[in-house]
UniProtKB/TrEMBL annotation:
The keyword Signal applies. Residues 1-35 form the signal peptide. It comes from Strombidinopsis acuminata. Residues 54-77 are annotated as: Disordered. It comes from the Eukaryota. Residues 58-77 have a biased composition (Polar residues). This is Uncharacterized protein. Keywords: Signal.
Amino acid sequence: RSRGATRSHAEWWRVPMHAVLLLTVAGVNHRLVSSFPAQTVRRVPCLHLMASSEHPGYNQSQPLSRSDLNDSRNAPDSAQESFSAEIYEAFEAGKSYGSSLRNRFVAPAIDDPGLPFADALTSISATLLVAGLSLSGFVPPVSWLQKADWMPAWRALPYIPPAIVHGTQLASCWVLGALAANAFEREAFCGGLGTALSRTWRAGAFAIGVLLLGTQMRTYVELTAAGLEPFLGASREVDFRLISEANSLIIDCLAQAFFLTAFRIYRWWDAQPAGPRKQ
């Protein structure tokens, strides 16, 4: 080879597996591998390329030796060490954030033990009101309000069990959303009104997502089991079913949003220190 050509030196270095993945995805310079700790579970080849003119000991009249390459490779690189530290810091920050999200559900902070039950009762009450308005014709019929044949046919009594069951399902979605939004912490009802509303609406957004996902799965299973294609335009029966489900979802979301927001505002007001407005 000519004297100015690029020289190469290949060796095996030990690097952690997660570092290999990060380096592969990010396309980090191959020299960064040497800055990671030596504990490892796999060997990977690391190819060190260096132009002879860039080597600190380069001499036009003398070719590079193996010791020169080793000295250059082992030279401290503060930029590489800093970048390596940033990778580990970001990794630890991600683990910490994931643990905090998990703890919202497995180890939630509930400063008012009665608040989840009060929220659930509010959600069920809203569902019962929607059922009454639907039977009275004030709102369009909802798909979940089906008459219970095992109940005595006395006025609207057969419609109460399905309304309670559906209200319990909506309350379950709300509780999951409240856990995700930390809506049971003291700050959610003892802080400012803006914080109370923010926690409530964030919980509602999560609950609506859970409700949509559950409704889609249930509708898909039911239509598929009946031998129907679960998309609009497949048949008149499917169109009627999907439009009815969408109508019920809209009514449920509006009713739950109104009642739970009103209740959380009252809960915030009730938790405020005694003042002229409470006397």
